[in-house]
Amino acid sequence: MTVDPRSLLQNQSFWQQECGAYSPNPPLTEDIKADVVIIGAGFTGLNTAWQFKQDNPNARVVVLEAAIVGFGASGRNAGFSTKMFGLEPEIVLLRWGKQKMIEAHQYLKKAVAHTQQLIEEHGFDSDYRHSGLVRISYSDKQQERMKKTYQLFQELGIDEDMTWRDKQHVQQEFHSEQFAGGIYESGTGQLDPCKQVRALKKLAESAGVTVYETTPVTNITRTASAIIVDIPGHKITADKIVVATNAYSRQIPDTRRLQTRQHPIWTYQIVTERLSDAQWESIGWKNRQAFGDNRQMLHYFRPTVDGRIVMGGGDAIVYRTDATHEVPSPMTWQHCEAHLKWIYPQLKDTRIDYRWGGPVSLNADMVPEISFIDDERIIYSGGCFGHGVALTHLNGRTIADLLNGNKTELTDFWIVNRKSLSLSSDTLTFLAGRTARCALKAWDWWEERALKSSPGERIG
Ligand SMILES: Cc1cc2nc3c(=O)[nH]c(=O)nc-3n(C[C@H](O)[C@H](O)[C@H](O)COP(=O)(O)OP(=O)(O)OC[C@H]3O[C@@H](n4cnc5c(N)ncnc54)[C@H](O)[C@@H]3O)c2cc1C
Fold first, then answer.
1. What's the CATH number where 282 sits?
2. Phi then psi dihedrals of residue 191, to 5 deg
3. Domain with 386 in it: what CATH number?
4. Is 247 near ligand 1, meaning CB less than 6 Å away?
5. Other CB atoms within 10 Å distance of the CB of residue 282
6. Which has fewest Cβ within 10 Å: 19, 23, 185, 410?
7. Is residue 246 domain-resident?
8. Phi, psi dihedrals of residue 358, rounded to the nearest 5°
9. 37 CB less than 6 Å from ligand 1?
10. 46 and 63 in contact (C-beta within 8 Å)?
């Protein structure tokens, strides 16, 4: 990946722009040796680096980032720290069974708590609010499905922080006539992803981790005694490496096993101008929770600390290009804006100030994985899908346990070293992605066909 560092400091997410000027660390310009090299400075890479360094204060731990800290999904996401896992809960249940679904829920519950604790213990200034999440439906059909989801959580005994809310209740709270009901989930939070990832960098550095930015890994070679990591003009000789590149992992030159593990899928977001007090009054939403709908092509919404609304989703696009360069999607941004104004006609004249997109990592099973690649000296993390904020924070602890060679409750989680299906053909993956997208959109259309001016009908 050839990167002009200047281009990385602009045209990024609202969060990155709001966070202000950023001076990246200089690139690595010599050959070095390290105990552990971590490729990628997002939530996964930085959490892993910090955790491992805490366990091994004398170890030389190096993070190599092709662009800048938080360049990937970690600096562009919506900041929902939630217990969501995989696609729909029903699909996870069908594919993986009850026990694994319960275990995934417990892991994610721990992940949300772990993330909050990290923020509070280290005084991160990342605007964390443990304000809960509301899952909303628009149509009777979606509401029936939501009821089944709620009953499923109850049957599995994982509904501890969930409350069912009827139409009247959600409409009263959110002042939108489009809402048909919802589930309130109190044990989740929201944060500013860019502030969070930059705070993680500082924390890791304060423990003695070295972070090199604008330092792309161009090759990985195994020898009997070491792993050799190439960067332009130099090499690092390491005992172990962690490939924490999530949606970018196809570009890491390594074995085919790594390159066929997942595919990037693009998702897009918009941010409104600051709303006036009167506008906030008109839309209710007093508790400022995050919320999302239960469409297959879900939309999600949250307030910012400066009084804007961030919203995203509504589409997920597979491209043939790599994940590095943002592909603009005016159609998706337009869809998001129209959808926001469909929910809230009160905001029909509200301006959209920011638009951007980012890649999430999707694999054939649609659940995340942490795996050894060929041998225990290379650990890969990917497939975090759109729900990686809390997950990747705890995964950092899990990967540190693996690097230490320890078997722990976390390394026993079934996403660790599971047998994932490979996405062997690019063309087939592209076609399957496009077909799945059409099928999911058709599902939404079917469930929303009775709505007046349904959101699915308005934009392709
Ligand atoms: C638009 C959007 C909204 C999202 N919203 C949410 C949300 O609200 N809640 C939630 O839970 N999840 C959300 N997600 C998902 C979540 O952001 C990700 O799962 C998570 O941030 C992944 O973190 P990571 O560290 O594994 O990967 P990344 O943050 O993508 O980091 C990978 C890093 O690797 C670097 N890299 C790539 N190639 C190389 C190379 N050759 N050499 C060196 N470095 C390299 C990249 O530059 C990048 O910085 C969203 C994602 C997107 C895109």
1. 3.30.9.10
2. -145, 170
3. 3.50.50.60
4. yes
5. 15
6. 23
7. yes
8. -160, 155
9. no
10. yes
438 domain-assigned: yes
Structure tokens at 164: 């069912």
Check pocket membership of 360 for ligand 1, CB cut-off 6 A.
yes
Q: Within a domain: residue 107?
A: no
Asked if residue 402 has its Cβ within 6 Å of ligand 1, the reply is no
Q: Six-digit token pair at 252?
A: 């890491």
Among 77, 261, 369, name the best residue to mutate to test ligand 1's pocket (greatest count of ligand atoms within 8 A of Cβ).
Answer: 77
Tokens of 227: 């792993």
pLDDT digits (tens, 9 = 90+) for 186-216: 999 999 999 999 999 999 999 999 999 999 9
Structure tokens at 188: 């989740």
387 lines ligand 1 (CB under 6 A): yes
E strand or H helix at 243: strand 234-243
**Structural domain boundaries enclosing 244:** 5-77+194-262+365-424
Confidence of residue 288 (pLDDT cuts 50, 70, 90): very high
In tens, the pLDDT along 403-439 reads 999 999 999 999 999 877 777 677 777 787 888 888 8
- Pair of tokens at residue 78: 């919506």
